[in-house]
Fold:
Amino acid sequence: MDDLAHLTTPAFLVDRNIVEQNCARMRRKASESGVAFRPHAKTHKTVEAARLQHGGEVGPITVSTMAEAEFFAGAGFRDITYAVPIAPEKLPRAAALAGRIERLNILVDSFVALHAVETSGSVLDAFLKVDCGYHRAGVDPADPESARLAIAMARSPAIRFHGLLTHAGHSYNARDVEEIRRIAAEETAALTRFRALLAAEGLGDVMRSVGSTPTLSIVDRFADCDEVRPGNYVFFDAFQATIGSCRAEDVAVSVLATVVGSYPERREAILDAGALALSKDTGPSHLDPAFGYGVVCDLDLRPLDARLVALSQEHGKLATAAHLPVGTRVRVVPNHSCLTAAMYDRYHVLAGGRVAGEWRPVRGW
Amino acid sequence: MDDLAHLTTPAFLVDRNIVEQNCARMRRKASESGVAFRPHAKTHKTVEAARLQHGGEVGPITVSTMAEAEFFAGAGFRDITYAVPIAPEKLPRAAALAGRIERLNILVDSFVALHAVETSGSVLDAFLKVDCGYHRAGVDPADPESARLAIAMARSPAIRFHGLLTHAGHSYNARDVEEIRRIAAEETAALTRFRALLAAEGLGDVMRSVGSTPTLSIVDRFADCDEVRPGNYVFFDAFQATIGSCRAEDVAVSVLATVVGSYPERREAILDAGALALSKDTGPSHLDPAFGYGVVCDLDLRPLDARLVALSQEHGKLATAAHLPVGTRVRVVPNHSCLTAAMYDRYHVLAGGRVAGEWRPVRGW
Structure:
């Protein structure tokens, strides 16, 4: 690829054909499974990829910051879930945005947050965030207090209550596809049990919204849920390929870098891609403590005999027996595409082996 | 601080008084030691802080990207060292910038790079990058090939040769001040020996440029070097305070965050500051594997009984026995201020306990 010899490095490369394939596959599964599709836009943060998630159109999406919500609203997306429990101070901003689009769903997982909504003077669409084993945010579905909170939300005049939302982020700690499958089954089972409990209390029409790229990628069909919110699948990354969410050839992104130091006497080389070009995510280190900070490949994405053993701000240190003279260009498949993409103001989009355009992500909060 | 109750979170806070103190102390030491002062701007990447490094004026600086070099040149800085070995493809850009300012120093550490300069058609100011034990970039000062390269650079019509440049980055792995002191002594001794070797070969007037915040912070006076290039000292961080480069009260920066989930039953809470607000730098984990992703404090920067045990994209997970209800605001002292600062498009600058302004850093490459 001649273009890759001339771009300034480090550069974030996105293969549009692979993005389109990844998007089409997930969208088709949601459609065939008869569940609502509300993909997450936090991985790519671009209008172009969000539209590809919906086959070239706008559609319901999920976001991770209010800045993303406002950015996508400005680009015509009218139905948005802000999938982090809302800080009380962000309620006026959420209410202002909700007034400009069809629907902004917020997450609540405490009586404190519910009270904050009720005293904000607004009426907001909301889901109850449920913890299905990840133990990050969310209420325990087995705790009677959680049912009390769901019922309080459903009865609150300040809330239009839509259902239960969970994220099986612990699927990222899985060691193989079987473990991902078990986590996925537990996730939907916990939500379904909780929904039954609420139904017994008289609360019907409660949606179950689930989402994590590993759990949604390994199945052919989505079952026991009403909405799916995958995000990372648009790009995938070295982590997802290693735990079995995708094949190596499904990863759509890489960081183009240049060898700026070559030290064969100590079997090392230095790239001009460091922590600010790659992020310091350690990837699937639970499976391989020596995995390094990304998979170092040649320009055709064939892995090289080189491990990215250390990152400082603008240097990536390779342990390598390969001949990599100064000026050599490599592509690093990132460990965690969400974090790596966020380091760039622009992505270089490849199509047919050429740089065919640029995408500009939103940034900040 | 009333302002801190209202800023949108996460937000990057810079205490201007502490920055001024940190800058004045390092500048005074350089002046009293009679060495040239070329501070690094990569930590803050702002015009405001770069001027404070020089007592409110422009002066010689060091940068880590060509984007920084161009940004600071545009702000009136006329004497800049680009302190990463240059990729051959960046030579035309470097030459263009060099033509617009008084001096742009580049780094060379291979005959390949020297040859690239010689065939570029430009004449550039350059240092030889020397490895004094960090084993990242640089030539081995004990290798006869390194002296050959220095002499070739000095004789090259394409290079104005200024001297030897090193960075004792391995001081970051030190366990205490005594170890930092030993590394600093080895660094200057290795450069001085190498300079003597070059003098014996007839190469005189060779500058020794050194720089790392730990080695330059713990001494009262700089010796056995001709130029110093500290950078992190402007902000410092939890890492530097832990290894002994500074006191906790010398750290000028923190991330303002809000508790968005509170789970006392599992002794956990969630902040709205995750990997994109803090970076995934693990800090002084060589001294304390359970250090976490930053030091969690109240609004007056008193440490709380809370450890930041995990970061996902927009969530920070606290293990805590403290009462931290939803809506509580905290300040997180970052592990590595260079990487954390780079996540923000703007810094909120505090003076006298109020938000007194904004600084906008340069970004990208």
